[in-house]
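pasting for the record
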Amino acid sequence: MRAGSSTIEDTADAESCQPLRPPLMQINPAVSRSATMGAHSLPAVDGDLACCLPDVMRALIVEDDPNTADYLQKGLGEHGFVTDVATNGVDGLHLALTGEYDLVVLDVMLPGIDGRQVIRELRRQKNTPVIFLSARSKVEDRVTGLELGADDYLVKPFAFSELLARIRTLLRRTPEREPDVIRVADLEVDVRTRSVTRAGKPVRVTPKEFALLHLLLKRRGEVLSHTLIAEQVWDINFDSDTHVVEVAIRRLRSKIDDPHARKLIHTVRGVGYVLEERE
């Protein structure tokens, strides 16, 4: 049978090529850790998954239905995942923000706060891959989930083999994706809306100034040369004697740094510029 039904079938028949493994412990508190998977007892990962993923993958399951949560925890555990389970949106969001996960399997309808609110808050700070699970099968529901930042959307009831295939595809293709909002000290840049605030006050910047600031933020803490900045922001190899980068930095500083005691954009003489918080 499929997940979301009143009974959940064992996944062993679908994975008959796998060696027999001892059953996993059932752990049922609101937030739980798959406790049977120590460093020396992790089950073997199937070949297709192992070829493209690290040795140990961590997954967060946010699901309020105990049958579905147990089904997911056992299935993912048998394929090499160390899993945590949260049965409400508040605990799920807390774990997603404070833990380091390779994947979040997120139900839409949750007590506390729903999955849409969870992913909305998560995407403001982190880019962990997320697969939505939902009984809502309408096109507009799937579109909304994807627009909020989900990487995939699977309708209940579902077969575990399909979920596993989607996870394989997602984790193979998922690059390191930057968050929608980047913060350094009291500077905040929303990449989607292209808005900038410093100390809670909006800062008006031109498109090129935003591109320059975005580059400095993406590579914060790294000294960027004049040539690299010119290539990345203007997409042109400028002559070495041009002052376009210096002028752009000066203008950006006048908006970002000059009104504030704490400076974030720094010059490294003879090398370039770096954006970072200094004491």
